[in-house]
């Protein structure tokens, strides 16, 4: 089974690039399941029904998010529908939506799990304990993909080793820079610190460079805007034994 996991989509530019390249990528790599991080897919941060529908239309089977998921109040109803748009599982149970979604393809089923890191992030429940609680469900499919939306590389790697052998993959998102540390851990769990970003190449994490420079140099509030120009789609392709839930290969992709 081939599972494609796409890095943080930035604004309408990122959505448009996915619409252009993802159908061909799914076909060329014989992708069975596609998971996309869409927490920045709406212009100005967050996710909306419109941006989520664009991601589903071009090939997403599930959409993960992160610390910007609740930026848009209109996303609350979308999350509560539990139709494949997730929010991190370690938010309180009272928060809209849920942190796990089962992609059912008949022959095989894949559990998509979304978690948020704590280092330099919001003070939520422990992601390690939240993962343990989810994995205790006897009905959870053996193939389990974890999107760990976190700032600190050390926290991401620690969760990878903690989950090794119990999940199919622990894949970092949030920093918008694809890392070169993809590996398969001893227990058959694939890991990468960050999948990367889907958005403008000439940018600061998807934002117009001059705006990022102004913010960092001048220390005053700046209204960010998505950069113009050519885009890339950062992703990882996992080859998975659907009978054991182990990953046999992980490959980084940069589709321009």
What does this structure look like?
Helix 1 runs parallel beside helix 2. This protein has one domain: Purple Acid Phosphatase, chain A, domain 2, CATH 3.60.21. It contains six helices and 13 strands. The chain has helices at 11-28, 49-57, 75-80, 127-135, 153-163, 209-218; strands spanning 2-6, 8-9, 33-37, 62-64, 100-104, 109-116, 143-149, 169-173, 183-184, 190-192, 197-200, 231-241, 246-255. It has 256 residues and is α/β, with parallel strands linked by helices. The strands form two sheets. Strands 1, 2, 3, 4, 11, 12 and 13 form a seven-stranded mixed beta sheet that branches. The chain has a six-stranded mixed beta sheet with strand order 5-6-7-8-10-9, covered by helices on one side.
- Which of globular, elongated, flat, extended, rod-shaped describes the shape? globular
Kindly report the average pLDDT value: 97
> What profile does the largest beta sheet have?
7 strands, mixed
CATH names the topology as Purple Acid Phosphatase, chain A, domain 2
Q: What class would the helix/strand composition place it in? A: alpha/beta
CATH architecture: 4-Layer Sandwich
Distance between the termini: 24 Å
Radius of gyration of CA atoms, rounded to a whole number: 17 Å
State the helicity in percent bands: 10-25%
Helical segment tally?
A: 6
* H-E string: EEHEHEHEEHEHEEEEHEE
The residue ranges in which pLDDT falls below 50 over 5 or more consecutive positions are none
Number of distinct beta strands: 13
CATH class type: Alpha Beta
The percentage of residues in β strands lies in: 25-35%
């Amino acid at each position: 089974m081939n599972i494609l996991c796409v890095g943080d989509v930035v604004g309408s530019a990122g959505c448009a690039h996915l619409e252009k390249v993802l159908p061909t990528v799914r076909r060329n790599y014989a992708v069975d399941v596609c998971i996309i991080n869409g927490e920045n897919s709406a212009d100005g941060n967050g996710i909306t029904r419109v941006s989520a529908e664009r991601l589903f239309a071009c090939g997403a089977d599930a959409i993960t998010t992160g610390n910007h998921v609740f930026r848009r109040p209109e996303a609350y109803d979308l999350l509560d529908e539990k139709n494949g748009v997730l929010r991190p599982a370690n938010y309180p149970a009272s928060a809209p939506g849920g942190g796990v979604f089962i992609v059912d393809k008949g022959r095989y089923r894949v559990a998509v799990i979304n978690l948020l890191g704590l280092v330099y992030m919001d003070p939520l429940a422990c992601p390690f304990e939240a993962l343990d609680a989810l994995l205790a469900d006897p009905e959870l499919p053996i193939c389990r993909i974890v999107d760990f939306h976190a700032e600190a590389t050390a926290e991401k790697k620690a969760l990878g080793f903690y989950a090794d052998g119990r999940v199919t993959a622990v894949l970092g998102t949030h920093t918008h820079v694809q890392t070169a540390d993809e590996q398969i851990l001893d227990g058959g769990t694939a890991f990468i610190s960050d999948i990367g970003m889907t958005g403008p190449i000439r940018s600061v994490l998807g934002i117009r460079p001059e705006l990022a420079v102004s913010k960092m140099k001048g220390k005053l509030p700046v209204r960010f805007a998505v950069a113009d120009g050519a885009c890339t789609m950062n992703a990882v392709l996992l080859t998975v034994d659907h009978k054991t839930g182990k990953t046999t290969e992980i490959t980084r992709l940069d589709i321009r």
